[in-house]
C-alpha cells in the first residue's frame, strides 16, 4: 500500500504502447523508457489530471554499424540513421555527435504527453485519455514534446512544454478551457529554456513566470559573492501569456555551500499562500553524467512577486527514494538519484506535489502547509 506521504501513481508498465502516436510510422519494437515529470492540475469535476511525459524509446537503437533516432514528420514518424563510430553514447537517454563544432545531440527516444486522470485525492487512476494525447505537430517539435507544467489562471488552463528539434529548443504553450482538451498556441520563448512556469494567478494584474534560460558561457560572480555562476531561475512578465519581457530583478541563483549548486531550475508553478508565492524548484549536485536532482522551496512576496523573501537550499524538501522504485528497479537506467517536481495542487491541510522519480515514474508527495516559511 502507498504511504501517506510518498507513493508512485503511474509507471512505464501502465502505458499501452499499442495506442501510442508513434504507431503511425514506426514499425519497430519500442518500450517506455520513462513515464514521468507530470504536469498537474485539478479539473472542474474535482479529479486531478496528470500530463505525463512518455519517453518512448527504441528497444534496439543500434543495428549493425548504425544508431537510430526517432523523428516526427507531417507524414508520420521515421528513423534517422547515424554511423555508430561518429557518436558518443555515454548518456543512456541520447547520443552526441563527435565531429560537431557544437555540442550536438540526438535522441533514441521521443517524448509525447499522456493525460492521466486521478481521483480527487490523487490515490487512484480513474482514466487514461489516449484520445487526448499531445504529440509533435510542427517541425520545431520533431524530436518531441517534454515536461508539461500547468497553471489555472482566471478559469483557464495554461500549459507550458519544452519542444525539441534541430531548428530550435523552445518553450511552447497550450491552453484549455476545461483542463483536458488543449490547443497549441505556438512558441513563446525562442531559446533553450527547460523550465518556464506560470504563476497560478496574475500578480499585479499581469502574467508572471519563472524561466531558466541556458547558454554555453556564464560569467563569474566576484570572489566574495554568496553566489555561484551558472544557470539561474529568472522571471518574465506578459500582458497576454504570449509576449514575454524579462524582469530585471534576479530570481533564484545557485549559492555557495549548497550541495545542489551545479544547476538550479524551476519545478512547480508558483501558488499563492498566506506567506507569499510558494515555488518548488530543483537543484543539481554534480555527480557522474547526469547529477543528483533534489527539490527545494522558495517564497516570493505576495504583493511584489518579483521579490524573493525566503529560500531553503540546504535541506531538500523531496529527495529520490529508492524504496519507491524497488518494484521496478529492473527498469532503472540513470546512474544517480533524481527527483524532478513538476506539479502542485491544494489538498486541504497539505500540498500535493507531483514529481518525476528517477526519470522513470510519477511520484506523489503530500507535504503539510506548515512546513513552508
UniProtKB/TrEMBL annotation:
Domain of life: Bacteria
rRNA processing as UniProt keyword: no
Keywords: Glycosyltransferase, Hydrolase, Transferase
GO molecular function: glycosyltransferase activity; hydrolase activity
Record family assignment: Belongs to the glycosyl hydrolase 130 family.
Name of this chain's protein: Putative GH43/DUF377 family glycosyl hydrolase
Organism: Sphingomonas jinjuensis
Taxonomy of the source species: Bacteria, Pseudomonadati, Pseudomonadota, Alphaproteobacteria, Sphingomonadales
